[in-house]
Amino acid sequence: MKLIRCYTIGSVCLFLSLSPSVFGQGQPGGRGPGGQNSGGGGQGTTAQDPGVRASNSGLGQPLSTLTPEQVQFFNDGLARFVQIDSVSAGAPNEPGSGLGPGYNSNSCRSCHSQPVTGGSSPSQNQYPFVGPNPQILAGADYGASNSMPFFITADGPVREARFPFMMNANGSVSQVADGGVHDVFTIAGRQDAEGCTMPQPNFEQMQQLNNVIFRIPTPVFGAGLIESIPDSTILSNMSANSQIKQWLGISGHPNYSGNDGSITRFGWKAQNKSLEIFAGEAYNVEMGVTNELFPNERGNPPAACLYNYTPEDSTNFNLSGPQMLSDLVEFANFMRFLAPPAQSSQGIPGNPSQRSIQNGQAAFLKAHCDMCHTPSMQTGTSAFTPGLSNQTAQLFSDLLVHHMGSGLADNVSQGSAAGDEFRTAPLWGVGQRIFFLHDGRATPSNGGLLRAIQNHASNGSEANRVIGLFNQLSNQDQQDLLNYLRSL
Fold first, then answer.
1. Where are the alpha helices (DSSP H) in 228-338?
2. For tag attachment on the chain, is the N or C end more exposed, with fewer CB atoms within 10 Å?
3. pLDDT value at 118 more than 50
4. Where do the domains of the chain lie?
5. How far does the chain reach from its first CA to its final CA, in angstroms?
6. How many CB atoms lie within 10 A of CB 257?
7. H or E stretch covering 310
8. DSSP readout, 447-462?
9. CB neighbour list of residue 372: distance below 8 Å, 6 or more residues apart
10. Of the segments 44-48, 125-129, 365-369, which one has the largest average pLDDT value?
11. CB 328 within 8 A of CB 434
């Protein structure tokens, strides 16, 4: 027996005839949901991730609608985004200050550098050869005595570590939620941190206790457009195609601000409301720099490791123009005015044809990947620039959080996002990313994009039936779909 469903795209009703076997749980191991080989999918597929697209298509440029004054603010924000911070002002070639006591790296760019500033983790083995994982240098900068933990390697990705649960006094793992970031490095041993002996966390012990998870940086291209999408648009999109979403088992929901009840949208669990909050939290958590939104040192560090007045980043009342603003406000301006990625088939390894790209887009829709990775949403009116007002943001995300099952669960809850829920990752710019999924487990050495797709399926995942449909695609359709993703 076959089931017929009408899938509405605009005013067109597309009838699909599907076997009931697609309703089972898609398995990442490669066999169809019903246990039978699924027509070229899974382990038997010949499809491969073609690899990182070797053309930046103008990435890293500001929105074209900016005024000359706004370009000044963008460039000032970019300059601060790339600067290296020291503990206190005065370290050679490190104009910023406030680093530590704990930190994951010493500049924004070090986490967002591939393929250009504003992106994600680089790799010394992949285009565009930005260099080794910047954390390798940051951990030893200015004489710091850090040892490199097992999850930080030269070929990336950049990672932060979280402990899902608190520890008991006897050294066992409790059932009390932790979930916070435990910084990889400390400033102990640095020439500008005399007297600080704060140790690094014992990550090896936490690994043995199965109490450590990882996150990698998210790109910030087009972030101003995402910030400008009204809550009503997100909710309307959530309600669209409700029957087919119910049929597929998709039931995503927004994460919400505990303060004003509005929809949050930045971060792996959509836990941050705005670009300023996103920047302020990262400045404090990833670099240890207190600021006007997060003015207190975190983690109760020893007094011997505190060297500055707080907040360490604040409004510069004695200056004017862009220089008057705090770092976090200028970080937000840089991200807000950063143009989104543009689709391009140039530079995809293997040089797939335009027909392949077009067929891959059709396969993307056929497998219903678009039910979560919404191709586009409209922004509202923005007071910043016409380039953010009433624009079509081709982000390929619904900005909702979804249950991804036991295979991807990290047991960290943030806001209304549960331990196995994650925001639908925007796919614009995916053609030039190296590492995938929240912890970077999908890499060029183990399948890249193909592994990321297959890892969407596990016990309890809302993506199981979609992955079952992907596994039923022919080998060529799967390859075309991967080629299409590398064009985004």
1. 231-239, 242-248, 275-286, 327-336
2. N
3. yes
4. 24-57+230-264+345-487, 68-219+274-336
5. 37
6. 17
7. none
8. TTHHHHHHTT-STTBT
9. 250, 252, 397, 398, 400, 402, 424, 462, 463, 466
10. 365-369
11. no
Q: What are phi and psi of 190, to 5 degrees?
A: -65, 150
Please say whether the beta carbons of 144 and 152 come within 8 A: no
Are 280 and 292 in contact by the 8 Å Cβ rule? The answer is: yes
Locate 108 and state its tokens: 């924004």
Tokens of 299: 């983690």
Question: Can you list the positions of beta strands (E) in 42-193?
Answer: 85-86, 96-97, 102-103, 160-162, 165-167, 173-177, 185-186
Q: Give the C-alpha separation, 332 to 388, whole Å.
A: 14
Structure tokens of 323?
Answer: 């220089």
Report strand pairing: 12-18 vs 3-9. Answer: antiparallel
The β-bridge relationship of strands 173-177 and 165-167 is antiparallel
pTM: 0.90
The per-residue pLDDT for range 414-447, each reduced to its tens digit, is: 999 999 999 999 999 999 999 999 999 999 999 9
Other residues' Cβ atoms within 10 Å of the Cβ of residue 392: 11
Residue 15 has pLDDT above 70, yes or no: no
Pinpoint the alpha helices (H) of 197-298.
203-208, 223-227, 231-239, 242-248, 275-286
What's the half-sphere exposure (Cβ side, CA atoms, 13 Å) at 240? 17
Neighbouring residues of 123: CB distance < 8 A, sequence distance ≥ 6: 114, 130, 133, 155, 156, 157, 434, 435, 444
Q: Do residues 348 and 487 lie in contact, with contact meaning Cβ atoms separated by under 8 Å? A: yes
- The answer to whether the beta carbons of residues 165 and 177 sit under 8 Å apart is yes
Calculate ∠ Cα 88-216-157, nearest 5°: 90
Rg value, the chain, Cα:
23
pLDDT tens profile 174-186: 999 999 999 999 9
**Do 377 and 237 touch, CB atoms closer than 8 A?**
yes
* pLDDT band, residue 363 (cuts 50/70/90): very high
What whole-number distance in Å separates Cα of residue 397 and Cα of residue 265? 10
Task: Check: CB of residue 7 under 8 Å from CB of residue 362.
Answer: no
Tell me the pairing of strands 213-215 and 160-162: antiparallel
CA distances to 41, 158, 313, 325 from 283, in Å: 43, 16, 9, 15
Q: Per the omega criterion (within 30 degrees of 0), is the bond before 311 cis?
A: yes
Q: Which helix (H) or strand (E) holds 158?
A: none
Tell me if 20 sits within 8 A of 3, measured CB to CB.
yes
Q: Could you give the CA distance from residue 409 to residue 121 in angstroms, rounded to a whole number?
A: 22
3-class DSSP state for residue 417? strand
| Residue 84 pLDDT exceeds 80 | yes
Question: For residue 419, which of 399, 438, 397 has the smallest C-alpha distance?
Answer: 438
